[in-house]
């Protein structure tokens, strides 16, 4: 018979962590806080510490010091207790804290904890992962290697369907090579191959800022530099599925970064596609046919708790300045939910934390007590790091959508472009949310948009063309959502 007494063992090791007489390691975290530990425990529990301690020379008291300025005191305290006792308490903590622990556990090569937290986040915090997509995506590919295979698949499933989330982001060129390669391997990446080629060239050039701007000035050495940078990406391009005119106009200018055999085969294939070539012909990517969700799907898993697909069609037509509304089968945009108050909370600061950096967004809100559906379109990026300045655009607009109480929607385009969108400083973000001029404003003195009737439409200043409400009172909201507007690709069967 085998008896196991792990609880007692765990308690004893946690008690050992507090032993200030027998330690031989000091770890200094982000805020200069020191943690004491025992090298044998660290080396036994973490391959990272085993390697790190091997290379550190002890001081005159035989104590080794490790500095980790990138890890907060709170995070390291949790990790250290797990190393000693195998216990981690994540009750009543924010999801971001759990995510940071997972990333830190991976850095310390604590595989069991990393995998456990990764699975828990996917299974129970998928909404948070989607709302903080950029942070998650870049974090899982940072560092040495990528051990977050399940999160990688979770994210790539989203990017494959909505590639603009990454490829059209402002910081696309800072994407890690491993992330780029991971995406290029996807057979279901919803982009035309020539567009993928252009993005890859853009990314490769950005990694080498000394390359001449004018391609005519490039030397053979310049092309070799780009080829070396893209050596992991180039084999993943489906060259033989790029139309001939695009090969001529887009690929040929960079033919020197391709192997000679590949370029010869590509020319041959375009002229005589039935003749044998020596290069590997990768299969075409599977382009999905876009289908509207069925009524059953919409009821069980609605894309919005406030608006309908009819509203999406109407807003899309306004974005494109169409005189008539798109039909439901011809909507050229995907509305990707990035924020919902009933999920992410109604604290103004949360809006700035999640929506920072997102451009082409639609804000939708339902007014408490009247059931009005108000909103606005911002083609620019929300900026949480601003000095509190106005953003200029001719393309923003605000609106009130038709519902049971409003027969026809009201559209109001920006009138004074210099006062189209207002971003707030850090102190202001505690109380202020999205501001479309002074004509649609989210504000709460109690830092909760559902409570104090702080939101308003100012009728004394006309930054936008017309009023979208007949009521002049301030209001609170029942819920609000922010969607990223993504241009869909031309869809067809492969």
Automatic annotation (TrEMBL):
- Every copy of the BTB domain together lies at 23-92
Q: Where are the transmembrane segments?
A: none
The record ties this protein, via PROSITE patterns, to:
BTB, TLDC
The TLDc domain covers: 305-486
InterPro entries assigned to the protein according to its UniProt record, in alphabetical order: BACK, BTB/POZ_dom, BTB_POZ_domain_cont_9, SKP1/BTB/POZ_sf, TLDc_dom
Question: Among the entry's GO cellular component annotations, what is one?
Answer: cytoplasm
Q: What is a single Pfam family found in this protein's UniProt entry?
A: BACK
What name is this protein filed under? BTB domain-containing protein
């Amino acid at each position: 018979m085998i008896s196991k007494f792990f609880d007692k063992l765990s308690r004893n090791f946690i008690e050992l962590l507090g032993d200030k007489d027998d330690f031989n390691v000091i770890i200094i975290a982000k805020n200069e806080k020191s943690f004491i530990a025992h090298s044998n425990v660290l080396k036994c529990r973490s391959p990272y510490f085993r390697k790190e301690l091997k290379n550190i020379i002890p001081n005159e008291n035989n104590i080794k010091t490790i500095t980790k300025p990138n890890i907060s005191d709170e995070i390291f305290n949790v990790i250290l207790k797990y190393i000693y006792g195998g216990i981690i308490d994540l009750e009543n903590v924010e999801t971001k804290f759990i995510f940071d622990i997972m990333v830190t556990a991976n850095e310390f090569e604590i595989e069991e904890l990393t995998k456990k937290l990764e699975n828990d986040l996917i299974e129970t915090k998928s909404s948070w992962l989607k709302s903080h997509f950029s942070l998650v995506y870049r974090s899982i590919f940072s560092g040495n290697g990528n051990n977050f295979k399940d999160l990688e698949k979770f994210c790539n499933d989203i990017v494959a369907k909505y590639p603009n989330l990454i490829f059209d982001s402002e910081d696309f060129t800072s994407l890690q090579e491993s992330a780029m390669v991971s995406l290029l391997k996807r057979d279901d990446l919803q982009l035309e191959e020539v567009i993928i080629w252009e993005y890859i060239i853009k990314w490769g050039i950005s990694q080498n800022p000394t390359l001449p701007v004018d391609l005519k000035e490039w030397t053979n050495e310049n092309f070799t530099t780009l080829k070396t940078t893209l050596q992991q990406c180039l084999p993943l391009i489906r060259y033989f599925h790029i139309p001939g005119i695009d090969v001529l106009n887009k690929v040929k200018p960079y033919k020197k970064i391709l192997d000679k055999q590949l370029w010869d085969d590509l020319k041959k294939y375009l002229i005589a596609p039935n003749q044998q070539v020596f290069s590997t012909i990768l299969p075409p990517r599977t382009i999905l046919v876009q289908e509207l969700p069925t009524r059953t799907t919409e009821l069980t898993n609605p894309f919005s708790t406030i608006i309908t697909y009819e509203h999406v069609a109407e807003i899309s037509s306004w974005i494109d300045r169409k005189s008539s509304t798109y039909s439901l089968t011809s909507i050229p945009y995907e509305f990707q939910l990035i924020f919902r108050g009933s999920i992410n909370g109604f604290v103004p600061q949360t809006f700035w934390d999640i929506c920072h950096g997102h451009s082409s967004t639609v804000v939708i809100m339902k007014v408490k007590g009247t059931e009005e559906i108000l909103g606005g379109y911002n083609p620019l990026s929300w900026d949480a790091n601003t000095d509190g300045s106005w953003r200029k655009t001719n393309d923003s607009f605000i609106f009130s959508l038709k519902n049971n109480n409003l027969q026809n929607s009201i559209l109001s385009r920006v009138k004074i472009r210099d006062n189209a969108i207002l971003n707030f400083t850090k102190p202001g973000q505690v109380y202020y949310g999205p501001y479309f001029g002074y004509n649609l404003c989210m504000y709460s003195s109690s830092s909760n948009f559902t409570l104090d009737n702080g939101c308003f439409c100012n009728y004394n200043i006309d930054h936008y063309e017309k009023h979208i409400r007949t009521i002049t009172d301030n209001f609170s909201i029942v819920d609000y959502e922010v969607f990223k507007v993504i241009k869909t690709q031309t869809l067809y069967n492969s």
